[in-house]
Amino acid sequence: MTEKHLAILRRHMVEIVEMHFDLASDEIGTAMLDPALRRALLEVPRHLFVPSSLAAHAYQDGPLPIGFDKTISQPFIATLMLQLAGIEPDTRVLEVGTGLGYQAALMAEMGAEVFTVEVVEEFAEAAQARFRALGYEVKVKVGDGSRGWPEHEPYDRIIVTAAAPEPPEELLDELARNGRMVIPLGGQEVQVLSVVDKNANGGTSARPVMPVRFTQLELVA
Predict the structure, then answer these.
(1) Residue 193 and residue 161: Cα distance in Å, rounded?
(2) For the chain (length 221 residues), average pLDDT per consecutive 10?
(3) Per-residue CA distances from 11 to 87, 103, 192 (Å)
(4) What DSSP string describes 50-66?
(5) Burial, 127: exposed, middle or buried (Cβ in 10 Å; 0-12, 13-18, 19+)?
(6) Can you give 129-142 as a three-state secondary structure string?
(7) CATH 3.30.365.10 is right for the domain spanning 62-212
């Protein structure tokens, strides 16, 4: 496929995402896709963030396997997480679960300062290569994402791309006052994408958004 064909597929993907936002507006609190996020979706080549054998399917409305029993989230869910987080230029973001780097690339395209942690070394290396090739200045670490990346705290936003029964305490500690975490909460069967806000006094509150299905957050001994 040519770049022109790929651009058409990206536009179609964005139209589908916008349709999802409209249909789920009661759950997510808005029917409108953030304009800066929409521009990022049109710019970032999602087909480069999936295995090459699946590049032709990259813009379909569904998750895709990327190896090690992991998937890249369907475009709507990936977009929703970033919209709920409220990513803006210069926002300091910690992402837990890099995968092959698509969400981190979207945030970098939006002007955020992105730190991302991945437990699978092969994924981290592949994502870093993609960031380098595309000119995104994303900092990548191999490690246990539930422990975050304390050397660079505090973070204005934390995005967790794996489910946990409750927000990990170490991640909450790394979240800035008046910061926000977006995380799927629950076990293997029942999970709810949730927004966890930390107030100016350090207290936290969680708001459920919609049912989702993610792999479980891995803990490394």
Answers:
(1) 10
(2) 90 97 92 96 96 92 90 94 96 97 98 97 96 97 94 97 94 97 91 97 95 83 50
(3) 21, 17, 28
(4) S-GGGGGGTTSSS-EEE
(5) buried
(6) HHHHHHCCCCEEEE
(7) no
Partners of 204 in the β-ladder: 198
Tokens in use for 4? 């022109």
DSSP state of 58: T
Peptide bond preceding 154: is omega within 30 degrees of 0, i.e. cis?
yes
Task: Supply the pTM of this predicted model.
Answer: 0.94
Q: How far apart (Å, rounded) are the C-alpha atoms in residues 192 and 210? A: 5
- Determine which helix (DSSP H) or strand (DSSP E) holds 19, and give its type and residue range: helix 3-23
In DSSP terms, 113 is beta-bridged to: 92
Q: Provide the pLDDT for residue 220.
A: 58
Q: CA angle, 155 as apex, 110 and 80 as ends, to 5°?
A: 45
Q: Is 73 a catalytic residue?
A: yes
Q: Quick one: how far is CA 199 from the chain centroid? A: 22
* Burial group, residue 116, by CB count within 10 angstroms (0-12, 13-18, 19+): buried
Coil, helix or strand at residue 49? helix
> Which of 25, 53, 73, 146 is flagged as catalytic?
73
